[in-house]
Design brief:
The strands form two sheets. Strands 1-2-3-7-5 form a five-stranded antiparallel beta sheet. A two-stranded antiparallel ribbon has the order 4-6. A hairpin with a 2-residue loop joins strand 2 and strand 3 (173-180). It starts with 5 loop residues before the first helix and ends with a strand. Helices cover 30% and strands 15% of the residues. By secondary structure, the chain is of the alpha+beta class. It has helices spanning 6-10, 17-30, 59-72, 74-84, 121-125, 131-144, 146-150; strands spanning 152-156, 163-170, 173-180, 186-187, 196-200, 216-217, 222-226.
């Protein structure tokens, strides 16, 4: 879906960008359904810092602005458009850190207003801890475990604030996924369970078992376990 970037809507703090991007793609690739990665999601792309209506091409946004500026005033109408324009997700893909993001040698139809150092595909290709490499690990995990593609889903701990968790289950195979959906550390409800860690967005060094992770989840932490 080409709505504005979910990453920017959840928390635009650049200090949380990488971990939150990994959490969101973990949710997307471990829940039921057919996942679609729209351009830039695998890089942790965020909303663009558009500064003027002339930079937009989305007909819906242009019509909305024209309609609302007489009712709300230019500044307020622009704020409304900026929050919802689909052009955030339609700017050229950042392939490199070069001109126009390596997308084109000439000015593209919808330009990228500002560079985004460290977040291009080429830069992330060279970083084994990048959002791009993490997304590839997730996709490989999804392919390797049939249960992640076709298994049932069973949610647990629904009364735990900011904690989201579920089992994927199929023919005796089980995978457990847990998430801290907040910007603060929270208690991990299931530290006594001896599940094997498959992948997570927080480095735990050599830790391979849930019962050795400790009793707290880091802000926006996501972990996948095999049972």
């Amino acid at each position: 879906h080409d709505n504005p970037r979910m990453l920017s809507k959840v928390n635009p703090d650049p200090r949380r960008r990488e971990r939150l991007a990994k959490l969101l793609v973990t949710l997307q690739l471990t829940m039921k359904g057919t996942p679609f990665l729209f351009q830039g999601q695998e890089l942790g792309a965020v909303n663009q810092d558009f500064t003027d209506i002339s930079q937009l091409r989305d007909v819906e946004s242009l019509n909305f602005f024209a309609e609302r500026k007489n009712q709300q005033g230019t500044e307020e109408a622009w704020g409304s458009v900026l929050a919802g324009t689909r052009d955030h997700a339609r700017v050229p893909m950042l392939w490199t850190a070069g001109d126009n993001g390596g997308f084109s040698s000439v000015e593209p139809w919808l330009c990228r207003p500002a560079p985004d150092p460290g977040w291009s595909a080429a830069e992330q290709e060279a970083d084994e801890h990048s959002v791009l490499c993490y997304t590839r690990q997730l996709l490989a995990l999804r392919h390797a475990h049939h249960v992640l593609r076709f298994g049932n889903i069973r949610f647990v701990a629904g009364n735990k604030r900011d904690y989201f968790a579920y089992f994927r289950e199929e023919k005796g195979k089980r995978i457990f996924c847990e998430f801290n959906l907040s910007d603060k550390a929270i208690l991990r409800p299931f530290t006594s369970r001896k599940y094997r860690v498959l992948l997570g967005n927080v480095s735990h060094g050599r830790v391979k078992r849930m019962d050795r992770l400790g009793d707290r989840m880091e802000p926006y932490e996501a972990v996948i376990y095999e049972i």
